[in-house]
Amino acid sequence: MENRWLSLVFGLIFIQGLLALSPIPVADDEWEEFSRTLRSPAYRLPNTTKPSKYEISLIPYFDVVPTPNIPPFSFDGQVSIWIQATQAGVREIVMHCNSLVINSVTVSLNNTAMNLTNSNFTCEMPYAFLRIGTNEPLQMGQEYLIHITYRGFFQTNMRGFYRSWYRDSTGFKWMGTTQFQPGHARQAFPCYDEPSFKAYFDITIHRERSFSPTISNMPIKSISTTAVPGRISETFFTTPLTSTYLLAFIVSHYDRVESNGSPNRPFDIYARNNAGITGNYSLVMGEKLLEAMENYTQIPYYTMARNITMQQAAIPDFSAGAMENWGLLTYREALILFDPQNTNNFYKQRIANIVSHEIAHMWFGNLVTCAWWDNLWLNEGFARFYQYYLTHSVAEDLGFDIRFIVEQLQTAMISDSIDSAHALINPDVNDPTSVSNHFSTITYARGASILRMTQHFLGESTYLKGLRKYLRARQFDVAEPQHLFNALDEAAREDGALSAYGGITINSYFRSWAEKAGHPLLTVTINQTSGLMTVTQARWERNTGVSNFTSIWEVPITWTRAGAPDFNNLKPSQVITADVTNIERGTRGLEWVIFNKQESGFYRVNYDDVNWALLTRALRSSNRTVIHELNRAQIVDDLFQLARAGVMTYNRAFNILSFLEFEDSYAPWIAAIAGFNFARNRLVYDTTNMQRLQNLAIKLSAAITRRLGHVERNGESFMDGLLRMHVNTFLCNVGHPDCLEAARVSFANWRNGGFIPANMRQWVYCSGLRQGNSSDFDFFWNEFLKEDLANNAVIMIGAAGCTNDVGSLEKFLDAIITVNNSAEIIRPQDNSAAWSSAVTGNNANPMRMLNWLRRNVNLFIERNISLQTPISNIASRLRNENEISELLSWLETNREILGSSYNTGITGIASTRSNMAWSNRRVSEFARYFDTGYIEDKIDDDNGHDSANIATLSIATLLATVAISLNF
Questions:
Q1: Where do the Peptidase M1 membrane alanine aminopeptidase domain residues begin and end (predicted)?
Q2: Which of 108, 457, 542, 777 has its CA 20 to 30 A from that of 738?
Q3: Can you tell me whether residue 631 is helix, strand or coil?
Q4: Cβ(796)–Cβ(779) under 8 Å?
């Protein structure tokens, strides 16, 4: 994540988009605050009682209320909870509540009220506990009824039962909606708000007559106009046995904008009534994905509960990317509403795979739920995996099989390659940091990557058999990792899937990956004379290459060689379990090998000099595509990471990466962009070498720009359109002349009434503003204020900071903290993207933003707006000690009013100085390559050594190497 700002709009849209596939896109204030309520196991509920059923009744009030003693944006509630004691002698019932005023509590057995030890009830903070004491102990085997009346308040931070706003065809509208994961149902009603306390729920909402029918997890069962005077009361069918975090309800003026009209398999899309046809794509994709998941699991969705439906709703203000509430999936508008003319390919595939993610959760997460957040990967790892491979099964043109590697596996490896990384399984997840961290790239993307590796290890049919066993055994229940391991091992025994691996079991293999953090680097050294390959594994660390922790994994190995290249058989040939393993290649003489076919395993690979030289020749040859696209992407990513850590020099890495000049495929270039952006991040303090690096990137883009060009083409493939968008965003940022000119012309045509194709807007907006003036920004900003399509609005927010006009930048900054008539110009969910855009759009922006912040700091204090994000962004973008001193002086002067934001600034400055020091140490390696360019490698005639000195290749050796590469 540390190179995110240098990606500019690409990073803003692409990386943020990947993270937003999780219910928690980033470790933001929501999760930090929730985490503070879990400081120790004392914050966990006791297991002395458990619920079986809830009846919830809510009366929501918005800005207009019927009587003076009811505050606006509040709700009255009643909840009845049927519970049982799980052990003898229980005299206290403990559940959760937060931000609720408790009016009354009764506990009864067989319609007889019990005497309670207290009469005043409060939500005990910071634990968020409601304690109900009884004079007599609860009897085992008896069902007690707790009845509570209370008042709650619509939250304004996009969690719990919260308020949002939108504009439909008739104007401004308020709505109430929910986001309960991981522990915010307690802000809507008293409850056992942990995932293991599953129960049935009957929900009734008493809405104002002017509102549309309420939407909840289940369809409406009954309607009454007499239960609450002046209101319509809607009671929903009973939910499946479920956890509190999966409940949802929406009180709004929404319409059903799309529906399949099926009485047996109902599937509906809800949104504001002016959404037009933008819900159609998610309906079509959703139906395909739901059916595919049913076929895959052999558990039909519509049998999970009587009367269950499938509803998806577009929410204007939503802290999460999407949420898998059972039967009512909720999304940010940008992630579900698709306009064929105005939504780009990035958001088209985002909508498809986020719908897939949430649908997969109906099985992995809802039907079978992690018992506690320490094993969240049992929910999220599966959902992240299937959002790619399930979607690929119904829409191959979207390229999810290729994109998983660069978007998930390689991203996960970055997060997983520091010593402070967390494991998938951690029994100590109770404290604030560990809970927050478990909603992370590691849990989602690493979890998915390990599942992919396991699928190839077992073989797809055995893997699927094991998953079906797991789901059937744990349905409507919670699960621990051992339940999954046991099911997979049972399937493996039945099929003999692991019989060739010397006693390895899924239990031992998976535990080696799930119970420890990190992943290995395999260093492969080859005796080219004998063919003996020596493989050494050690935990990888991204900054030094050497972890402080010694770890050994059970690593499924795949490899292939130049003489008989086979990149498609992904069944591992063996499992290495030692730190050093010898493997016979089976051939003699010069021949490259590649380990980790299609990057099917979760590990990095480094080779000796001879093998790298042979690979360089093969990759630069006309037959380079013999090496699979995913392995070319693997090589790019591994080389950039080896160089970053200092295991390989940058001049050596760039010598191998010179093959990019001939490369025009998706995965290698996405990996290359990430690597170049990290390098730009580190060379930003040296303007001369920064420009030389950018010139190198432009030179290496020859093949990709020659094939794709800078203008959208009719009839091109989806993947070409998506790749051009990413490549041109990068190339305009590094100053590619043709890209800049194409952007300038397209932006000017737009100002004159022309149309910018959706896939070009990301880079045309930014580069057009960067090359333009205040008049260009004013035109752009007026278009933004009129924009009704959320995903295009997010693109525009990501580009707004690219303006070089100081007044225009400050106009954008003002908008981030401005509220007009109860509505924000830039919604809070997009604030992080807006701050990032403002600070990254141009090199001069950090100091411009600091000057603006100095003048407006009191507005932040008055409006209770956090300063942490803008200060962090500024501190991470400073260029020299003079800029650092200026920020530091302001931080010290305002230390008292800045509070914790002061520490954020100090931390950011320390990080910037660390990056500057890195640049000073390593820049000479870059300069050496800039001076020499590509140098052909020479392999010593004595090729029996495991490594060789590198110089110029002789003609004979070159011909021999090419012959091997061409499989002569």
A1: 282-493
A2: 777
A3: helix
A4: no
CB atoms within 10 A of CB 576: 21
d(CA 872, CA 403): 31
Q: Is 896 helix (H, G, I), strand (E, B) or coil?
A: helix
Phi and psi dihedrals of 515, rounded to 5? -95, 0
Q: Which residues contact 311 (CB under 8 A, 6 or more apart)?
A: 215, 267, 268, 269, 270, 327, 328, 329
Region for 502 from its dihedrals, namely left if φ exceeds 0, alpha if ψ lies in -120 to 50, beta otherwise:
left
d(CA 720, CA 874): 35
Q: Which amino acid is at 823?
A: A
Segments making up each domain of the chain, as ranges: 43-252, 380-398+422-515, 519-662, 684-771, 788-841, 843-922
SS3 825: coil
Phi first, then psi: give them for residue 898, nearest 5 degrees. Answer: -75, -25
Instruction: Judge contact between 429 and 374, C-beta under 8 A.
Output: yes
At 427 the pLDDT is 55
Among residues 45, 20, 29, the alpha carbon closest in space to that of 436 is found at 29
Fold of 519-662: Immunoglobulin-like (2.60.40)
DSSP E strand stretches across 841-900:
none
User: How far is 241 from 630, CA to CA, in rounded Å?
Assistant: 42
Binding site annotation covers 357?
Answer: yes
Q: Which of 957, 937, 958 is nearest to 948 (CA)?
A: 937
> What whole-number distance in Å separates Cα of residue 705 and Cα of residue 701?
6
Let me know if 420 is exposed, middle or buried by CB neighbors in 10 A (0-12, 13-18, 19+).
Answer: exposed
**Amino acid identity for residue 774 in this structure:** S
CA–CA gap between residue 406 and residue 599 (Å, rounded) = 10
Tokens of 197: 């306390």
Which residues, including other chains, have CB under 8 Å from residue 586's CB and lie 6 or more apart?
531
* Residue in 756, 850, 852, 754 with CA at minimum distance from that of residue 810: 852
Which CATH number describes the domain made up of 380-398+422-515?
Answer: 1.10.390.10
Identical fold, 43-252 and 519-662: yes
The residues near 503 (Cβ < 8 Å, ≥ 6 apart) are none
Amino acid 30: pLDDT: 39
Tokens 């990513």, residue located? 637
Q: Is 661 annotated as a binding residue?
A: no
Three-state DSSP at 384 gives helix
Task: Provide the whole-model pTM.
Answer: 0.92
Determine whether 358 is an active site residue: yes
Residue 38 contacts residue 435 (beta carbons within 8 Å) = yes
Angstrom distance (rounded) from CA 533 to CA 552: 19
Q: Look up residue 891 and give its amino acid.
A: L
For position 148, what pLDDT does the model report?
98
Instruction: Please check whether residue 561 is in contact with residue 620, taking contact to mean a CB–CB distance below 8 angstroms.
Output: no
| Cα–Cα dist 435/31, whole Å | 8
Q: Which of 358, 407, 599, 883 is catalytic?
A: 358
Q: What residues pair up with 271 in beta bridges, in sequence order?
A: 255
The helix (H) or strand (E) run that includes residue 215 is: strand 215-216
Give the DSSP letter string of 423-480.
Answer: PS--TTTTSHHHHHHHSSHIIIIIHHHHHHHHHHHH-HHHHHHHHHHHHHHHTTEEE-
Q: Rounded to the nearest 5 degrees, what angle is found at the Cα of 519, between the Cα atoms of 516 and 521?
A: 145
- CATH code: domain 43-252 is 2.60.40.1730
**Residue 897, token pair as written in the block:** 């009013």
Condensed to tens digits (0 to 9), the pLDDT of residues 637-679 reads 999 999 999 999 999 999 999 999 999 999 999 999 999 999 9
Q: With 0-12 CB in 10 A as exposed, 13-18 as middle and 19+ as buried, what is 322? A: buried
Residues 600-649 pLDDT 10s: 999 999 999 999 999 999 999 999 999 999 999 999 999 999 999 999 99
Half-sphere exposure of 748 (CA within 13 A, CB side): 8
Which neighbouring-strand residues pair with 145? Answer: 82, 108
One-letter amino acid identity for 352? A
| 380 known ligand binder | yes
Which residues in the chain land under pLDDT 50? 1-39, 429-438, 943-968
